[in-house]
Specification:
Layout lengths: L1 H5 L3 H13 L3 E2 L10 H13 L3 E7 L3 E7 L1 H15 L9 H6 L3 E4 L8 E6 L7 E9 L5 E5 L8 H6 L3 H10 L3 E3 L6 E3 L14
Antiparallel strand pairs: 1-3, 2-3, 4-5, 5-6, 6-7, 8-9
Helix pairs in contact: 2-4, 4-7
Protein backbone atom coordinates (compact mmCIF):
# COMPACT_ATOMS: atom_id res chain seq x y z
CA UNK A 1 0.00 0.00 0.00
CA UNK A 2 2.82 2.43 0.86
CA UNK A 3 4.55 1.72 -2.45
CA UNK A 4 1.29 2.39 -4.28
CA UNK A 5 0.74 5.88 -2.88
CA UNK A 6 4.36 6.91 -3.53
CA UNK A 7 3.90 6.28 -7.25
CA UNK A 8 0.55 8.11 -7.58
CA UNK A 9 0.57 11.28 -9.72
CA UNK A 10 0.41 14.45 -7.64
CA UNK A 11 -3.12 15.32 -8.83
CA UNK A 12 -4.33 11.84 -7.90
CA UNK A 13 -2.85 12.38 -4.43
CA UNK A 14 -4.68 15.70 -4.19
CA UNK A 15 -7.95 14.02 -5.17
CA UNK A 16 -7.47 11.51 -2.36
CA UNK A 17 -6.76 14.33 0.11
CA UNK A 18 -9.87 16.22 -1.04
CA UNK A 19 -12.00 13.13 -0.39
CA UNK A 20 -10.25 12.55 2.94
CA UNK A 21 -10.88 16.14 4.07
CA UNK A 22 -14.52 15.97 2.93
CA UNK A 23 -14.94 12.85 5.08
CA UNK A 24 -18.07 11.89 3.14
CA UNK A 25 -19.33 10.80 -0.24
CA UNK A 26 -19.13 13.68 -2.74
CA UNK A 27 -20.63 14.38 -6.15
CA UNK A 28 -18.02 13.72 -8.82
CA UNK A 29 -18.32 17.19 -10.36
CA UNK A 30 -17.33 18.78 -7.02
CA UNK A 31 -13.81 17.43 -7.65
CA UNK A 32 -13.32 19.52 -10.79
CA UNK A 33 -11.46 22.30 -8.89
CA UNK A 34 -8.76 19.70 -8.16
CA UNK A 35 -8.57 18.38 -11.73
CA UNK A 36 -10.19 21.07 -13.93
CA UNK A 37 -10.67 18.82 -16.93
CA UNK A 38 -13.53 16.33 -17.13
CA UNK A 39 -11.60 13.81 -19.21
CA UNK A 40 -8.56 13.88 -16.90
CA UNK A 41 -10.76 13.70 -13.80
CA UNK A 42 -12.53 10.64 -15.18
CA UNK A 43 -9.20 8.98 -15.96
CA UNK A 44 -7.77 9.62 -12.49
CA UNK A 45 -10.93 8.40 -10.77
CA UNK A 46 -11.06 5.20 -12.79
CA UNK A 47 -7.40 4.48 -11.95
CA UNK A 48 -8.01 5.10 -8.24
CA UNK A 49 -11.07 2.86 -8.37
CA UNK A 50 -9.06 0.16 -10.13
CA UNK A 51 -6.45 0.36 -7.35
CA UNK A 52 -9.17 -0.10 -4.74
CA UNK A 53 -8.71 3.37 -3.24
CA UNK A 54 -12.14 4.85 -4.00
CA UNK A 55 -15.74 3.82 -4.59
CA UNK A 56 -17.81 5.33 -7.40
CA UNK A 57 -21.57 5.01 -6.98
CA UNK A 58 -24.07 5.82 -9.72
CA UNK A 59 -27.52 7.14 -8.89
CA UNK A 60 -30.23 7.95 -11.44
CA UNK A 61 -33.28 10.00 -10.53
CA UNK A 62 -33.74 12.61 -13.25
CA UNK A 63 -30.28 12.15 -14.68
CA UNK A 64 -27.21 10.15 -13.79
CA UNK A 65 -25.18 11.41 -10.83
CA UNK A 66 -21.92 9.83 -9.71
CA UNK A 67 -20.81 9.87 -6.09
CA UNK A 68 -17.20 9.28 -5.01
CA UNK A 69 -15.87 8.16 -1.62
CA UNK A 70 -12.71 6.64 -0.17
CA UNK A 71 -12.44 2.96 0.61
CA UNK A 72 -10.73 1.94 3.89
CA UNK A 73 -7.58 1.31 1.84
CA UNK A 74 -7.92 4.77 0.27
CA UNK A 75 -8.32 6.37 3.70
CA UNK A 76 -5.12 4.69 4.92
CA UNK A 77 -3.28 5.98 1.84
CA UNK A 78 -4.73 9.48 2.41
CA UNK A 79 -3.40 9.48 5.97
CA UNK A 80 0.08 8.64 4.65
CA UNK A 81 -0.13 11.44 2.07
CA UNK A 82 -1.43 13.88 4.69
CA UNK A 83 1.54 13.19 6.96
CA UNK A 84 3.94 13.98 4.13
CA UNK A 85 2.01 17.09 3.03
CA UNK A 86 2.10 18.44 6.60
CA UNK A 87 5.90 18.55 6.49
CA UNK A 88 5.95 20.15 3.07
CA UNK A 89 7.13 17.36 0.76
CA UNK A 90 3.98 16.20 -1.05
CA UNK A 91 5.79 16.51 -4.39
CA UNK A 92 8.27 13.72 -3.57
CA UNK A 93 7.81 10.91 -6.09
CA UNK A 94 9.40 7.47 -6.23
CA UNK A 95 9.73 5.94 -9.68
CA UNK A 96 8.69 2.32 -10.38
CA UNK A 97 12.39 1.44 -10.74
CA UNK A 98 13.13 2.90 -7.30
CA UNK A 99 10.19 1.02 -5.80
CA UNK A 100 11.69 -2.18 -7.18
CA UNK A 101 15.14 -1.34 -5.76
CA UNK A 102 13.64 -0.44 -2.39
CA UNK A 103 12.75 -4.11 -1.87
CA UNK A 104 16.45 -4.56 -1.03
CA UNK A 105 16.27 -1.97 1.78
CA UNK A 106 15.47 -2.60 5.43
CA UNK A 107 14.89 0.41 7.68
CA UNK A 108 16.07 -0.19 11.25
CA UNK A 109 14.00 2.25 13.30
CA UNK A 110 15.02 3.38 16.75
CA UNK A 111 12.51 3.24 19.57
CA UNK A 112 13.03 6.95 20.29
CA UNK A 113 11.51 8.95 17.41
CA UNK A 114 13.42 12.02 18.56
CA UNK A 115 16.58 10.55 17.06
CA UNK A 116 18.11 12.53 14.21
CA UNK A 117 18.58 9.60 11.84
CA UNK A 118 17.35 6.25 10.65
CA UNK A 119 19.66 3.33 9.89
CA UNK A 120 19.26 1.50 6.60
CA UNK A 121 20.50 -1.94 5.60
CA UNK A 122 20.82 -2.52 1.85
CA UNK A 123 21.13 -6.08 0.59
CA UNK A 124 21.47 -5.74 -3.18
CA UNK A 125 21.92 -9.02 -5.07
CA UNK A 126 25.54 -9.87 -5.84
CA UNK A 127 26.94 -7.43 -3.26
CA UNK A 128 27.71 -7.73 0.44
CA UNK A 129 25.14 -5.99 2.69
CA UNK A 130 25.92 -2.39 3.58
CA UNK A 131 24.58 -0.34 6.48
CA UNK A 132 24.34 3.46 6.44
CA UNK A 133 22.31 6.29 7.98
CA UNK A 134 19.85 8.84 6.67
CA UNK A 135 20.05 11.96 8.85
CA UNK A 136 17.88 15.00 9.47
CA UNK A 137 20.09 17.95 8.48
CA UNK A 138 19.73 21.61 7.60
CA UNK A 139 20.24 22.21 3.90
CA UNK A 140 21.75 25.35 2.35
CA UNK A 141 18.39 27.12 2.56
CA UNK A 142 18.13 26.57 6.32
CA UNK A 143 15.40 23.91 6.02
CA UNK A 144 15.40 20.54 7.71
CA UNK A 145 15.73 17.81 5.07
CA UNK A 146 16.65 14.14 4.98
CA UNK A 147 20.29 13.58 3.98
CA UNK A 148 21.78 10.25 2.93
CA UNK A 149 25.37 9.63 4.02
CA UNK A 150 25.78 6.85 1.46
CA UNK A 151 25.09 9.14 -1.51
CA UNK A 152 25.95 12.46 0.20
CA UNK A 153 22.61 13.73 -1.07
CA UNK A 154 19.36 15.38 0.02
CA UNK A 155 17.56 13.95 -3.02
CA UNK A 156 18.76 10.40 -3.73
CA UNK A 157 16.44 7.42 -4.12
CA UNK A 158 17.25 6.26 -0.57
CA UNK A 159 15.85 9.56 0.75
CA UNK A 160 12.76 9.38 -1.47
CA UNK A 161 12.11 5.82 -0.30
CA UNK A 162 12.54 6.81 3.36
CA UNK A 163 9.77 9.41 3.04
CA UNK A 164 7.21 6.61 2.65
CA UNK A 165 7.66 5.42 6.24
CA UNK A 166 5.48 6.90 9.01
CA UNK A 167 8.38 6.69 11.48
CA UNK A 168 10.50 8.93 9.25
CA UNK A 169 7.59 11.32 8.78
CA UNK A 170 7.25 11.58 12.59
CA UNK A 171 10.92 12.48 12.91
CA UNK A 172 10.57 15.21 10.26
CA UNK A 173 7.35 16.55 11.78
CA UNK A 174 9.16 16.89 15.10
CA UNK A 175 12.13 18.71 13.59
CA UNK A 176 9.88 21.04 11.59
CA UNK A 177 7.85 21.87 14.70
CA UNK A 178 4.60 20.24 13.55
CA UNK A 179 4.37 17.97 16.59
CA UNK A 180 6.03 17.60 19.97
CA UNK A 181 6.82 14.00 20.90
CA UNK A 182 6.95 13.33 24.64
CA UNK A 183 10.41 12.12 25.70
CA UNK A 184 8.82 10.10 28.53
CA UNK A 185 5.94 8.20 26.92
CA UNK A 186 6.36 8.91 23.19
CA UNK A 187 2.91 10.50 22.80
CA UNK A 188 2.49 12.91 19.84
CA UNK A 189 1.25 16.26 21.12
CA UNK A 190 0.12 19.38 19.20
CA UNK A 191 2.91 21.80 18.37
CA UNK A 192 1.61 24.42 20.83
CA UNK A 193 1.49 22.02 23.81
CA UNK A 194 3.81 22.69 26.77
CA UNK A 195 2.95 19.51 28.68
CA UNK A 196 2.26 15.98 27.43
CA UNK A 197 -1.45 15.37 27.06
CA UNK A 198 -1.00 11.71 28.03
CA UNK A 199 1.49 11.61 30.93
CA UNK A 200 1.81 15.29 31.92
CA UNK A 201 5.59 15.51 31.44
CA UNK A 202 6.97 18.91 30.43
CA UNK A 203 7.72 18.98 26.72
CA UNK A 204 11.15 20.18 25.61
Amino acid sequence: MVDKFRTLPERAQRLILQLYDSNKEVVKTSLLPVVPNSYSLERYLRELQKDGLINIREEKIVRKTFYVSLTPKGRAVAEQIRRISEVGDLSIQVTPEEVEKSKNLRFLFHVNVLDDHVTVEETAPGRPPRVFNIYVKLNGGGNFRLWCEEDDSFDCWHVRTAWGYPQVQKIMMHYRGKIKVCHVCGYENPENANYCMKCGARLE
